[in-house]
Amino acid sequence: xxxxxxxxxxxxxxxxxxxxxxxxxxxxxxxxxxxxxxxxxxxxxxxxxxxxxxxxxxxxxxxxxxxxxxxxxxxxxxxxxxxxxxxxxxxxxxxxxxxxxxxxxxxxxxxxxxxxxxxxxxxxxxxxxxxxxxxxxxxxxxxxxxxxxxxxxxxxxxxxxxxxxxxxxxxxxxxxxxxxxxxxxx
Length: 186
Fold this sequence. Notes:
By secondary structure, this protein is of the alpha+beta class. It is about 35% helix and about 15% strand.
């Protein structure tokens, strides 16, 4: 697979400059107003049938809710995610059950849209976001006990990056994005 290390001219700088840090500045607190803006950005994401099947559990260092989430991080993510100013547990409502539609095959996709909006908003605010799935899903679900029909999908660490974006950030080429679904895996 070939990689294009630099984004094409014309891509928005918020997208071109985005990266997922592996170190956050522990002094980079995320205040209430910023949390509100991040959630507002997620709220305005598109969704199938305007179902908006996403929900979030947010916590910051020093809060009781944060202490509930931390023990469930995998060691690989705990090394860097614990220092973020905000941890967001992302949930989706796959099983609707209160109308014509019993199950949403688009719920995870729609949640991804909301997280993407949140990520771009974080970047616009001078923050970084790192999405991850390295945590004990069963243990975290037991700890947070979401309502029936809701499922934890992923987490996002948000805060001030304590590192610069890498000089080279390999990405698959546009040609590969178009060809890969019809090409034998290497």
